[in-house]
Amino acid sequence: NRVGDIESRNGQIRLGDENTCGTLTSRNGSITVGLASLVDGNVGTRNGAINLQDQVAVTGRVSTRNGAINLSPGAEVAGTASTRNGRIELNNATVIGGLNTRFGDFQRRSWIDGDEFRLETSIRLPRQRIQPEDYPDFRAWTRRVEESGDLWLGIVLPQGSANLVDGPVEAVDG
């Protein structure tokens, strides 16, 4: 099923399994996107949690000011995932654009340049000190940054090819 943009001022939004929609926006409610659904836009709430179930794809960003973001395995967000006062749980999901939280920002960008694959990452840590009561959340954030920085490449060989390259393979820094 396909629906357009969905907006709620004070209620919860729940998109059922295997649906396609535009942007999902809730001012004061949580947003849940069902199994194997596509959000062709952004998912955002000011005061609520966001839950993306297995195999959900979001073409835009996912953001909440005062809530948690929970991404199930197989979920993919093309933009950034950001929260000001909550937590982001990746659970082996993919966030292509980066992570933005109260502790800092992590961004990743990749592209093909001729016959080279390029990857650029940046981390911004504006806070000089982390308070002891914030240590568990900060450690969890650094773990999520590390997880989201994982890079997986799939290489498809032309039919009948026995070798990928003709000669030695070397890693090149820079």
Helix-strand sequence: EEEEEEEEEEEEEEEEEEH
Distance between the termini: 46 Å
For the biggest sheet, the summary is:
8 strands, mixed
How many alpha or pi helices?
Answer: 1
Poorly predicted spans: none
Structural classification: mainly beta
Report the count of strand segments. 18
Task: Report mean pLDDT, rounded to a whole number.
Answer: 82
Widest sheet: strand order? 1-4-7-10-13-16-17-18
Q: Helical amount among residues, as a percent range?
A: under 10%
Strand content: 35-45%
What value does the Rg take, in angstroms? 19 Å
Shape: globular
Oligomer state of the chains in this structure:
single chain
Q: What does this molecule look like?
A:
The chain has 174 residues and is mainly β. Helices cover 8% and strands 36% of the residues. The chain contains one helix and 18 strands. The strands form three sheets. An eight-stranded mixed β-sheet has the order 1-4-7-10-13-16-17-18, with helices on one face. It has a five-stranded parallel β-sheet with strand order 2-5-8-11-14, with no helix packed on it. The chain has a five-stranded parallel β-sheet with strand order 3-6-9-12-15, with no helix packed on it. A hairpin with a 2-residue loop joins strand 16 (98-101) and strand 17 (104-113). The longest helix is centred in the last third of the chain and has 14 residues, at 135-148. The protein is globular, with a radius of gyration of 19 Å.
